[in-house]
């Protein structure tokens, strides 16, 4: 798995990784985090199965995966709320497995609203500083600064129940950052918010993280969130990392069929392998195969909607079933022979002629494609 | 123009009724529809509760109220009851708060079990409890208010557990304790600064229930030969019914004022921090089930 190797290599070499992975220029010297062979079982279920991940100083790594894939367990082990059955967590090279959560210096933002209801926004932000015995003047000043940073100075005296969901999560972010954590842990902090607020907060978190250069582990099941915010994304499945790579690489060169289909939209087309598995014939055209697929047997070809072509054609290979306007592009659902449905994205300016019922020709360019064994 | 005005007013009323703060508007309109039977129910309830009180006041006579305070043992029995209430409150809180929190956090599967255990003092008759306790406690404690305090802890357990349990259910205990721990707080700090302040309302309910229980319980106190306020009332009743009845009414009013004070303070705090309000109705309903004196 070439992409994994690249990712790991980038992770182990601190400064090189920052440049390679591309976090903010001028980020301060951060903390590196290593998860090594983490295993955790809950009864018969294996939440983590030998998971390893290297996070470079100042990097934001997102763990992405379906629910139950173990991503939250991994985060909670790093935070110190769970213990691993085997494996270790290293922070700046030191094993913290036996350090209690309260002494790990990690700021965490939770999925559910976690502000202390009995304290004002200012006192919530100042809580961590109070635990570090900072005096009241310093505490108030610093908490005030952080609230200003998240744009909530005016709300500093308000209690959590007087704040909106988005505001509460911003206060929670300020609270986590107030202790100047070595590592910032984000456990699906945006999932309870509505779409618009989520988008704003996403940008705000990313900007702040880059400005402060805090090493961040971010858990989410929302691929858009992961791809838009992270320097690298780790896709998890059944307690293991399938691939860790930069968002564009993950999207364009998925290492496995699971990653390919989990990230973005993917068409599955039946294909016939040629020349010992190095090429495949699909939609009547023979195209090269991207490495790592099966060499014989029935296969399916994975192609993204934007990598297929569609044009009106009398007697073409398909009939338009549905046309969905998405703004600049339109998504055309085409019915091919054998009840096979494919999705094709075309610029909306070219979609006008492709009304439901129109005959069209769906084609595939000669780029290498990902091939997996056909199901059933 | 008049028609437009009426229409606009109706639109405004509809808008008010739709907004959350428009409850008052909705209530007005509903009571406007069903005023008669509402008043009838209120009247029946009023007669049911107030008539006995009125009869008692008529029976005792106004003069008896003045002489209650000068009766022998009035002050000492009341003071005994207050001391026992304080002791019961302290022991119950010290036992039940950490236990309930621990069960919620670490042994959630035990909640059902604990619930059935805590129901036992209600199911077992007080006389059985008393006899059982007398068998096992050291003889030096017999017929002292200390023993009675311990017995009341058993009686108070169901009410305290339910109040604290309800409070813990209303907050996200796991996330709050984890957030606090993550920010560097130890267990004691987390309890003191995060958990207990957010249980304020339910601890207040528990307090109300415990105090009402201790100020009203008769069977156990009498069997333990401790002259608490209820025991004193019954004893006085045999000598002078007027004094006894007026003392009961004073006790009722004082307890009621005390509950009202606690509830008012609790609700004010609740409004400030957004915590739940102390529910006067559930409190009164529960004290009714305790009332065995």
Detailed description of the structure:
The complex is a heterodimer of chains A (376) and B (293). Chain A contains ten helices and 20 strands. Chain A is of the alpha+beta class. The N terminus of chain A is likely disordered. In chain A, the strands form four sheets. Chain A has a six-stranded mixed sheet with strand order 6-7-8-3-9-10, sandwiched between helices. Chain B has two domains: 59 residues, no CATH class; 223 residues, Orthogonal Bundle (MetI-like fold). In chain B, helix 4 packs across helix 14. Chain B is an all-alpha fold. The chains are: A alpha+beta (376), B mainly alpha (293).
- Quaternary form: heterodimer
Number of helices of chain A: 10
CATH architecture identity of the largest domain in chain B: Orthogonal Bundle
Percentage of residues in helical conformation of chain A: 25-40%
Shape of chain B: globular
| β-sheet strand percentage of chain A | 25-35%
How many structural domains does the protein architecture of chain A include?
2
CATH superfamily (homologous) name of the largest domain in chain B:
MetI-like
Question: Which segments of chain A are poorly predicted (pLDDT under 50) over 5 or more consecutive residues?
Answer: 1-28
Please work out how many helical segments of chain B DSSP would assign.
15
Share of β-strand residues of chain B: under 5%
Mean pLDDT of chain A: 86
Overview features:
heterodimer, A: 376 residues, alpha+beta, Rossmann fold, OB fold (Dihydrolipoamide Acetyltransferase, E2P), 6-stranded mixed β-sheet, 5-stranded antiparallel β-sheet, 20 strands, 28% helix, 32% strand, globular, disordered N terminus, B: 293 residues, mainly alpha, MetI-like fold, 2 domains, 15 helices, 83% helix, disordered C terminus
